[in-house]
């Protein structure tokens, strides 16, 4: 019974952070760490003291995490990046805000004595004596200590203090995974209340030792147990006096922690079957439950509920039917064609989620080259005469500056070229569009044409399609390519303006160049010839897109399923060993990797024939590698077995922390059900005659750190987690259970009103009664779930939006 927790962090923004550059500004970015491990790096926002990131993330974690911290950094090209400040939220703080933490949080100084991480393995014993007992403390080992030295490691030793006496272990050089196996004894009187303090330190020859963390043990507790052994989380020292609050600026966050217990699949079958029957009946007649869910869902929750329902029905092969049901509901309450799909209804939110889940790869193939060109050219583009800055443009010849008219003319040519290229790419992409997307657009087109059949509404079916394809999918991706994974960084001000104007142009085309859209911004007139031509192109494209028969749809779906699109692909650097000794001399060679549901493969170029490197079923772990091992903090290792069953390790280098975590996430997801997954691993390398991490001399020695197979990022191309989606829908329905019972009473008394209508052969109150019974059964199943027991080891889902 896995238990999942989720943390939402949304819309991060910093305010009034101190200037770190000579020009009076900063180049801030944000690092998100969970228990001091970096998992996310936002894009850098250049030359500002008030950055806005608006990036969204979701992270799955084990339940043992303690805190999530947000570090605001200043990027520096010539030296190490400066730390501006941080905001740290503990798990207890987040749990105290069930609806989420939202607001401005003051940045605090980063105190080295508080930047501790890792765990220490202790065995504690109380040996009774005639007059006084003996307190025996065995310091066995530590793992994942903070690297304090330039070599990416530390030289740790442990100081044990009790009742005024202090004893120390030996020093282990160059390791964050030391092993001591040393025991210390102290006299202790019966009933003594003094605490035992175990401190980890990094030894330095020429400067003061660095604090690595401490554990304070309540000796009184040991009198009953006599012995205790385990891993103890290292804690920071007492906080020192800080600067006055607010001097470092503030960070705006929306963070939410959820705790979900996911039951076995069989428990959700009645709920899934009930909702699926609703969709199947809804395509033939009026729906009952889905309208109620929409009616009782607040605007704030609608996007989340739409996404959960959409993913559930995708997993059941009913996404097209679910969206068709929503189309019918929307059309039944729409009288004016020009307001169709313009509100934030369940239909619009579900269709947005559908396009992101099913059409993101398609979007990348169309938009990717155009977006890359805009970023690379960095041309000054402006159509609004009131915003033209001639001084920013440069000269047209050797000496003469360009005039405003020349700037506007050149801008129109540039935008027309980009718009034309985009429309041409779109029009050539009919066959590349996923079959399920084509089928859904076809159903939307037909439903709208049935609802508005008159000649005066001949463009309405086309606008219905473009309202989603152009206005809610392509245009937002153009304006914010970073948020749609089209670019790694946000655009600078000049590129951002070009993208905004291009997005406006594609919106005008999507609106079929109506007088209303033209009247909004008259200065867009220079693009009208391209827009008018684009309207004709787009109508022709949509006509071909929706011209798909049921047999062709099935053939397309079958062809797509045989293609097995990669889970993740891209360039990585693979370790190549030179010389006779293991890792005596090493280098990394750039290759193009592709991860499918069968294997991790590589090729010399993206178009070359791929060779399998690792079979998916043979993966045993995918983990990070210590920075000191290869001089980079972005190296991962894939531990696997070859065809003879012997363990092997592939070392792959990524270009940034985000790419590293994305690859680790993808590898862990596709191998999560493999047999023989490792529980521990070596974060270093076996160099010469020992492991660089823990200095053990046996290459087959048990790993010195625990694996993190449950730590994954949630992405748009993730495999569907049917049980989790069902649990999230159940949780949402549980929140509206009182309103559902009241509606059931009204319907049973014959006084119900609203969108629910009688379906074929079944009264609306009957189906609602079934739903209420399903909720009750699930609530009882949760109360009996062993996941609620303290002895269980639940999973934790950490969802981040930033």
Automatic annotation (TrEMBL):
Pfam family, one: PH
C2 domain: residues covered: 1-105, 116-232
Region entry Disordered, spans: 783-802
CDD domains for the chain: C2B_RasA1_RasA4, PH_CAPRI, RasGAP_RASA4
A GO BP annotation: cellular response to calcium ion
All copies of domain PH, residue ranges: 565-672
GO cellular component: cytosol
Keywords on record: Calcium, GTPase activation, Metal-binding, Repeat, Zinc, Zinc-finger
Biased composition annotated in UniProt, kind: Low complexity: 783-794
InterPro entries per the UniProt record, alphabetical: C2_dom, C2_domain_sf, PH-like_dom_sf, PH_domain, Ras_GTPase, RASA4_PH, RasGAP_CS, RasGAP_dom
Gene3D superfamilies registered for this protein in UniProt: C2 domain, GTPase Activation - p120gap, domain 1, Pleckstrin-homology domain (PH domain)/Phosphotyrosine-binding domain (PTB)
Domain Ras-GAP: 301-511
GO molecular function terms listed in the Swiss-Prot or TrEMBL record: GTPase activator activity; phospholipid binding; zinc ion binding
Coiled coil ranges: none
Protein name: RAS p21 protein activator 4
Protein species of origin: Myotis lucifugus
